[in-house]
Structure formats: structure tokens, C-alpha cells
């Protein structure tokens, strides 16, 4: 006889090596029995890099257990079969960039079949930058000393992966009391629970003794998550030893350095404005060559694909500069690549590439190369939303020739007080001295004695990233990494100087249907 007695599901996370793009198992969730709507508790702890495209793959596997035959009354022979339930691909940036850092995706992988939905939630472990200030008091402490009072102190332990405990804090001794109030103390969250909010924190209560043989009064366990509820009935801990006593949390204050992700998860959109197609000079022989075309397209794709994860609608205005436009041959330094000035938005980075290729066919590339108009164009958008709800990233891909250096510097100084950053990728063999000056990493850029309020420009020369072995995937990933590395800090410098606080994350989500649910 053969019948199905039980089934279980598990979610397996795969990540990709940066160079070879090979999928490797990163980890798996716990196995959940007998439901097709598992809500996994298991978490994956990943390092997040804004400037990298971190591809993820989630595979769902179903296990069936078949009872093959009865061996005797108690024992049966079981056969396990595996089935593939579906999979989902995304990037870590996509999850983080979604509202509330919560991404919902349809599962695919089985042609012609609806496989369900995955919900992935990301949460930043604040282990490096978060500290908590806590204060405890005790009541009804056991009389331990001859004189009828105690000298109590608390010892905090963090639990380790292997189940052992490491001491992480000792309070002072409060002498001669039955109702001690210990001083508030500050402890890094990393020391308290290794940044894991659900990890057990063990607290032991002792009675101090002059000779060092402190008497153990009792102990209790809690976690960061429980403690973060602050003073309440849930944070009164009964310590059961020979008598009953209470340790009460009086206050719990988180001291946190705000990061880029705090703003992103509050629902902020980063709007990249792409600018492509420097016209090079009319004399440039390389421009229309397949190689050069590739260079522009490759740089745009490498950087654009990372940034687009943070844009909610993925519509990018794309502008060209330095060309004669049809029908009258007017020279323009800010024209819509898609030929529609009222609506220069392109759908996704693919749409921008398409518009770029089309525009090469219709416009006549023409010098001089002015940067200032296009910077001012984006600055006008940025100036209209200064409340921190949007941040603009202008991507300029250029051969490095610049005809309006003085105005460009002034435009950058002007823009340095706006929510925007400028990324410049230099292509071709030219000298990029002017671009390095605009970058301002060494000397803060200034114009007529006025200095930029903050550094908003990042420049990289494309040729430094050409891989002689032809591994474009790796070289473009490196390019994007270097070009985007400064964006989170530039973004934060704007928010901090303006005193803009992150919006609170949207309330926790309760699924309407019953989709497959996992957590990072
Ligand atoms: C910079 O801002 C000033 C004051 O708003 C403006 O007059 C000037 O034209 C701007 N410079 C450029 C190059 O756009």
C-alpha cells in the first residue's frame, strides 16, 4: 500500500559569485510541515552593498513522505520524494528598495503553471551603529545577608551560535537594599545580542560578597525584541530561586546612527536621471564604431541597473546634449532622448538604451559639449522637492571634453545644496583632468570664491575597468561599485545637514491571501 502521509516545504536561498555568476546555496529556512502557505521564521544574514548588484534566487522545495510498508506495529518504512514548487529571482537592492523593505513576487520556474507568491522582507542588523541605554530595578529581593539586606548586581550574557554564553555587561553593586535601582547603562547592540534581535539574553542576579564568593540569587532570559517593548508588564521578570523576586526594566532607549537604509525603507524613492550620448566631437572617428557604442551602453547598463532597484516606478527621464536636432538643425544641450520633450521618461534602463540608440539615428552629434544645462535641468527637479522625499542621481556618460567648465563648476556649486548627486563616467582615451577637478575628492569644488556645500560628484574613467580577458560582467560590476560607492554618504550628508529624519517604516503587513512567506 502506498499513500501520502505528510509533506513539508523549505525555502533555499542561492547567491551568485560576483565574477563567475555561479549560483551557490547560501542557506535554507526551517522545514514547515503540512501547509502550502509556510511563514518561515528562518533568516538569512547577508552583507548589503548599495553599489553592487546582489542577485538572489529563492527555490521552494516540497518533500513528500510516502509510507511504503509497515514493518511492524510501530515502525514503518518511509520514502521521501522531492518536488520543485517554484522559484523567484530578485536583487537584494530590490528588496531593500521596496516600500517597507518588503518585496512580493510571483514564483516562476514551472512553465505554464502559477506557482504562488513569495514575500521577502529585509531588516538591517544594526550591529555596528546601534546602542541601547537600559535601566533596571529589582523588587522583593531575597534577604541574603545577616543584616537582612542584599547587595545585588546583575550580569548580562549574550548567547552564541553554539549555545554558550558570553558575559557582556555587569551592573554596579547597589549596597544594602531590597529594592535596588541600578544605574542606566549603555551597551552596543552588537555586544548585547550580536545584532540579532531574537537572540537570547541571559541575566543573572547576584548578591555581592566582600570575599568574592557572590551568592547566586537567580536568573531570567529575555531578548532585545522583548526589551525593546520598554517599561511594561511584559518587561517585569520573575526570578525564581528559593524565593520569588522581580527585576523590572525601567527604560529602554535606542541610540542609533541613522543610515541610508533607514531613509530607503521609509518609502523614499531615488530617481535616477540618466544622461547619455555625448556627442563627442564631430571630428571623433570612434564615436559610431561598435566598440564606442558599446562603451556608452555598457556603462549605462552597469550603473543604471543597480540604481533602478531604488526607483519605485522605474521611469527615467533621459536627456542628450551636444547635438543638432531635426527638423531645423538647432543645437541643443538638453534634449529628450526619446524625442518627446513633454515626456522624456523611458521605461527602465532598457527603455533608456532604446531611446539612446534611436536618438543616434535621428540627431546629428555636434559640439561644443556643455554640461551646465543638463545639470541645471536636474537641479530644477531637485529644487522642487527638498523635503527629502526624493533624491536625484544624474548619470553623465561623456568622453571628457567639456566646453563650459566655468559654468559647470558654478552649476555644481549651486546644486550642492539640493538633494542630488552626479555620477560621471568618462569613456574613450581622453585625458580627464577636468572631470577629476569636478569630482572634488581632493579639493572641494568652488566657483568664484563660493565653495560647494558638500561633495556631490563622483567620477570614474571607464578605461580603468576594461577587462583584458573580456569578462565584462565582472568589470562592469566593479565600475558600478566604484561609481556608486559614494552615493549613500552623499545622500546622508544632504539629509543630515537638512535635519531630515527617516520616515517611519510602513506598518507591518498582514497578507490578504496566504502567499508563501519568507524573511531575509
Ligand atoms: C547659480 O545660481 C545663481 C543664483 O541662483 C544663478 O544666478 C546662476 O545662474 C547659477 N549658475 C548657473 C551656472 O546656473
UniProtKB/TrEMBL annotation:
Q: Does the keyword Repeat apply?
A: yes
Q: Which UniProt keywords apply?
A: Calcium, Metal-binding, Repeat
For this UniProt entry, what's an example GO CC term? Answer: plasma membrane
Q: Mind telling me which InterPro entries this protein's record contains?
A: C2_dom, C2_domain_sf, C2B_Copine, Copine, Copine_C, VWF_A, vWFA_dom_sf
Q: Which GO terms describe its biological process?
A: cellular response to calcium ion
Q: Please provide, alphabetically and separated by semicolons, the GO molecular function terms listed in this UniProt record.
A: calcium-dependent phospholipid binding; metal ion binding
> Is Repeat included in the keywords of this UniProt record?
yes
**Residues covered by the C2 domain:** 99-237
Q: Which Pfam families match?
A: C2, Copine
The entry sums up its family as follows: Belongs to the copine family.
Q: What name goes with this protein?
A: C2 domain-containing protein
The organism's lineage is:
Eukaryota, Metazoa, Chordata, Craniata, Vertebrata
Amino acid at each position: 500500500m502506498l499513500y501520502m502521509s505528510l509533506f513539508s516545504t523549505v525555502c533555499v536561498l542561492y547567491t551568485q559569485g560576483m565574477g563567475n555568476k555561479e549560483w551557490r546555496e547560501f542557506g535554507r529556512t526551517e522545514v514547515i510541515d503540512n501547509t502550502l502557505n509556510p511563514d518561515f521564521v528562518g533568516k538569512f544574514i547577508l552583507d548589503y552593498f548599495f553599489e553592487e548588484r546582489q542577485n538572489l534566487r529563492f527555490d521552494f522545495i516540497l518533500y513528500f513522505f510516502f509510507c511504503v510498508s509497515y514493518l511492524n506495529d510501530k515502525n514503518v518504512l518511509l520514502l521521501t520524494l522531492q518536488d520543485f514548487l517554484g522559484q523567484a529571482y530578485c536583487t537584494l537592492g530590490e528588496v531593500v528598495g521596496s516600500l517597507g523593505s518588503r518585496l512580493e513576487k510571483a514564483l516562476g520556474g514551472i512553465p505554464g503553471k502559477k506557482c504562488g507568491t513569495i514575500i521577502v522582507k529585509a531588516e538591517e542588523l544594526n550591529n555596528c551603529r546601534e546602542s541601547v541605554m537600559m535601566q533596571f530595578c529589582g523588587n522583593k529581593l531575597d534577604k541574603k545577608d545577616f543584616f537582612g539586606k542584599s547587595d545585588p548586581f546583575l550580569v548580562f550574557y549574550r548567547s552564541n551560535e553554539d549555545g554558550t554564553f558570553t558575559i557582556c555587561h555587569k551592573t554596579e553593586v547597589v549596597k544594602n537594599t531590597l529594592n535596588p535601582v541600578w544605574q542606566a547603562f549603555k551597551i552596543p547592540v552588537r555586544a548585547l545580542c550580536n545584532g540579532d534581535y531574537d537572540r537570547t539574553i541571559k541575566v543573572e542576579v547576584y548578591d555581592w560578597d566582600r570575599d568574592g564568593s557572590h551568592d547566586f540569587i537567580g536568573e531570567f532570559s529575555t531578548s532585545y525584541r522583548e526589551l525593546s517593548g520598554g517599561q511594561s508588564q511584559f518587561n517585569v521578570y520573575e526570578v525564581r530561586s528559593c524565593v520569588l523576586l522581580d527585576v523590572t526594566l525601567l527604560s529602554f532607549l535606542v541610540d542609533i546612527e541613522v543610515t541610508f537604509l533607514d531613509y530607503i525603507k521609509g518609502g523614499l524613492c531615488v530617481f535616477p536621471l540618466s544622461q547619455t550620448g555625448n556627442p563627442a566631437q564631430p571630428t571623433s572617428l570612434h564615436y559610431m564604431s561598435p566598440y564606442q557604442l558599446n562603451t556608452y551602453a555598457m556603462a549605462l547598463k552597469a550603473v543604471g541597473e543597480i540604481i533602478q532597484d531604488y526607483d519605485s516606478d522605474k521611469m527615467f527621464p533621459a536627456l542628450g546634449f551636444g547635438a543638432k536636432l531635426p527638423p531645423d538643425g538647432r543645437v541643443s544641450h538638453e534634449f529628450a532622448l526619446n524625442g518627446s520633450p513633454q515626456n522624456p521618461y523611458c521605461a527602465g534602463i532598457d527603455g533608456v538604451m532604446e531611446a539612446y540608440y534611436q536618438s543616434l539615428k535621428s540627431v546629428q552629434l555636434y559640439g561644443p559639449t556643455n554640461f551646465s544645462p543638463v545639470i541645471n535641468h536636474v537641479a530644477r527637479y531637485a529644487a522642487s522637492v527638498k523635503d527629502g522625499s526624493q533624491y536625484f542621481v544624474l548619470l553623465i556618460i561623456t568622453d571628457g571634453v567639456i566646453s563650459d567648465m566655468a559654468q559647470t563648476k558654478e552649476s555644481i556649486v549651486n546644486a550642492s545644496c539640493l538633494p542630488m548627486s552626479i555620477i560621471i563616467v568618462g569613456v574613450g582615451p581622453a585625458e580627464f583632468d577636468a572631470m577629476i577637478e569636478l569630482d572634488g575628492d581632493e579639493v572641494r569644488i568652488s566657483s568664484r570664491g563660493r565653495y560647494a556645500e558638500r561633495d556631490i560628484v563622483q567620477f570614474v574613467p571607464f578605461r580603468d575597468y576594461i577587462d583584458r580577458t573580456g569578462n565584462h560582467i565582472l568589470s562592469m560590476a566593479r565600475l558600478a561599485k566604484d561609481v556608486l560607492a559614494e552615493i549613500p554618504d552623499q545622500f546622508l550628508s544632504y539629509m543630515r545637514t537638512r535635519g531630515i529624519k527617516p520616515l517611519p517604516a510602513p506598518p507591518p503587513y498582514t497578507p490578504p491571501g496566504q502567499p508563501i512567506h519568507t524573511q531575509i
